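User: I'm writing a tutorial on reading structure tokens. Could you give me a worked example: one chain, its sequence, then its tokens, then a sentence or two explaining what the tokens reveal?
Assistant: Sure. Here is the example chain.
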Amino acid sequence: MANVYIASRFKTLPKLLALADKLIASGHAITSEWIYKDAANPVPFRSPLYEQNCVEVQEKDIQDVLRSSALVLFTEECERTPGGLWFEAGLALGRGIPYYVLGPRINIFCFRPGVWMPDEDALFAALNRLDNVLPPESQY
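And here are its predicted structure tokens:
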């Protein structure tokens, strides 16, 4: 089974949590802690704690991606999104971590052969084929 990082927008959190529950029920582990902690309690943009929170959260997110064996890029409601999901997907790609797109193809990297999944069944089948070999340790 795979260690899965889920990348998307905060506003899709209810759908991400439902997907995470299904992945866990199928024997996969979720490495994206942000869906359980940071997205549930975001620090407001104008808060004095915002900058420090960004530093802490981005470091956790990077480590969570690096300890995954697959990344799911959930693209529903992500058109024209400048969010961290694109950085996280690029990090996975650069480290040789397989990534899968679930949702509309809204970026050129959604068209790489074998990454777009038409539905959850196809995604689960792809994840089940992984041998869960993690990439070498890295400090990016």
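What the tokens reveal: The helical segments are 13-25, 50-66, 84-95, 120-129. The chain has a mean pLDDT of 89.
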